[in-house]
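Continued from yesterday's entry.
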Amino acid sequence: MKRPIVTLLSAATLLIFTAGCNSDDSVKQAQEANEMKADSTTANTDMGKVEEKGMDYDAEFLAKAASGGMLEVEMGKQVAARAVTPQAKEFAQKMIDDHTKGNAELMALATKKNITLPTTLGDDHAKVLKNVTEEKGIKMDQQYMKEMLEDHKEDVREYTEASIKAADPDVKAFAAKAVPMLKMHLDMVTKMKPTVDAAK
């Protein structure tokens, strides 16, 4: 009987939080929702505070990763449909395929851990999508590859860090599992980018 009551309380908390939140950034909203959950469930002890700090890191990592994963798929779809160069088209399709799977794993993990994820792109990722999709032709391909190079450098760094620093072993394992895929994407875009940059 306790479970439905907890679920109702969580839903009520989320509604109150959503109504009172001033930020439009979906990643920040998710992070604030997770902080409220942590505050309401963590015992006010030294050990509880240590655990809460670790879970805050995990929730923040997963929220950012969710927005990043959505960006890879959404931008990949738009670029795959409009790309001029075969390299940009191939890379975009790879992003759709790999990150669709990764996003599903991330959502399942967040559900299991009762972590709120953003349902739309965070502000930073929305800006990247706009920067790429507002371009046309070869310029779009070149901007896409530039953003993907920077994005995957950051992803490899952040996922590697999470594979070491995450408090929850499942979050740690999720991050560690993703690192080889992200490194492969980084290697792929690094090799393809000069060809796209040289195209006219």
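--- second protein ---
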Amino acid sequence: MQKSMRGASGYDIAVGTDFMVEVMIKEGLLEPLNHDHITNLNNIDDQFPDKSFDPGNKHSVPYMWGGAFIAYNKDTVDTEITSYKDLWKPEFKNSLVVLDDQRVMMGIANKMQGESMSSTDPEVIEKSKELLIDLLPNIKAFDSDTQKTMLLNGEAKAGIVWGAEAYLAHRENPAIETVLPEEGMYLGIDCFIIPKGAPNQRAAEAFIDFVLRPEISAEITQDFPYSNPNKAAHDLIDDEILNHPAVNPPEEELAKGEFLKDLGEAVKDCDRAWSEVKQ
């Protein structure tokens, strides 16, 4: 996004998470899509198009979606885990891997207060900062890329991880289980977008249409098992993947989950709070 804000990015296509798509649309950083060139958009499940961050999907196409879950090794954890707050227990000193993601981690701390993940209330943001600072003695690593590695090699007993990482860790070690936190989980949709001034927009739209073919979309999920919004692809995906709670949580859990929203000017308060957590 920073490169796009300086002018033409030079990229034909990018992937942006829902709330960032909202920001980029407001900033005029995205090209409108020609849906006549993306006929496989019809394969997307009805619950995903026309979200509030991009009504009518004029600028984005859902690619993958998922959430932030708790994963833990039941062979090394003695305490019961039902919520995010359980990770603050002394048992987890220096043994957690958590997402290095400002909005998700601050949002989780907001949720623990019974507030929106996208709260703009300075008092809520300040309290979330304090909660995360209190968690620091338990955090062994911030990692948004390969959280399963520390779960599998024993460096971490538990963590706040992406759904695909929780599933892949469980597949290699069935003792690693997923918890859908009782407070309600973070949810996000990653979308294809075309940056303003893209030199080859027609080719980008052709690529998006190609990825939305059921067989191509299913193949991606087999290797990168995030939740797949492409309903037509589901018949081609292994049931083991589709039925795992970190990949496709039950409806009642999704109802408690929350998608992030643009914070507007309050993002400065969130940035400051996060920098004080990480300093």
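The mean pLDDT is 95. Strands lie at 14-17, 60-73, 96-98, 139-142, 158-162, 176-179, 186-193, 258-259. Will compare against the first tomorrow.
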